[in-house]
Amino acid sequence: xxxxxxxxxxxxxxxxxxxxxxxxxxxxxxxxxxxxxxxxxxxxxxxxxxxxxxxxxxxxxxxxxxxxxxxxxxxxxxxxxxxxxxxxxxxxxxxxxxxxxxxxxxxxxxxxxxxxxxxxxxxxxxxxxxxxxxxxxxxxxxxxxxxxxxxxxxxxxxxxxxxxxxxxxxxxxxxxxxxxxxxxxxxxxxxxxxxxxxxxxxxxxxxxxxxxxxxxxxxxxxxxxxxxxxxxxxxxxxxxxxxxxxxxxxxxxxxxxxxxxxxxxxxxxxxxxxxxxxxxxxxxxxxxxxxxxxxxxxxxxxxxxxxxxx
Length: 310
Prior knowledge:
By secondary structure, this protein is an all-alpha fold. The protein has one domain (2-309). It is built from eleven helices and two strands. It has helices at 2-16, 26-38, 46-78, 80-92, 98-112, 116-123, 136-183, 194-221, 226-236, 246-256, 278-309; strands at residues 260-262, 266-268. The protein has a two-stranded antiparallel ribbon with strand order 1-2. Helix 7 runs parallel beside helix 11 (278-309).
């Protein structure tokens, strides 16, 4: 029953409370540790950077997962209720739905008020691209893309590894995904982040495709174009540099009959409908249905596991 309780409480915490203060947020501390260690590897020989990247990846994974594992192990035998509550708090730190929705809607609000500079600034918390000078359609596109991709790497993937390896599995995934977001770029991180980027690709291989299937199902349930969603995901997913990001993004593009574009990098879907601020609402609806479906699947898996082990 612990799996079911931890998952239920973690979801409730996210929906009701959202993100914890930055000073105690585990992902914020992951970022601080990564920032501290990355500077020791920049500027070295490519091979030395690559080896250093492997070392700090394994080090940071261990730094956050090992204490969590032993804390939960200790609490499980000493205080089962505390074990569930602490486990739920740890699990909640690996995903974020309320905050994603809040930021996406804030971007939409600025766009409706034609405050493009404010929308560009707010969007920086969702995407890594340079948002300066982006016109309204591309600001909408970037927001919708982030909502689609986050369905996978900010919800489906953490819970996928939670089901497989418990709370430490979800934390380990979040470490890798956070490191990839910070180091997985070309330029000075070309070799330093190469290992964690490939590891992130491997870890997201199944969750990204699951996310696309969930979004296609969401398109069907919301009476969107599920067939176009599926066909676009199949035909266009490989256009992104990431082997995984294209799946959920293309699925949403097909479902909404829009073209999602990262200037100079890719275009997914057909421009059947103009990108307007309200398109963000449509993408959030798809995400919410997909998230609900995945949560139900996780609970079913938890029940089956509980029945099988009693």
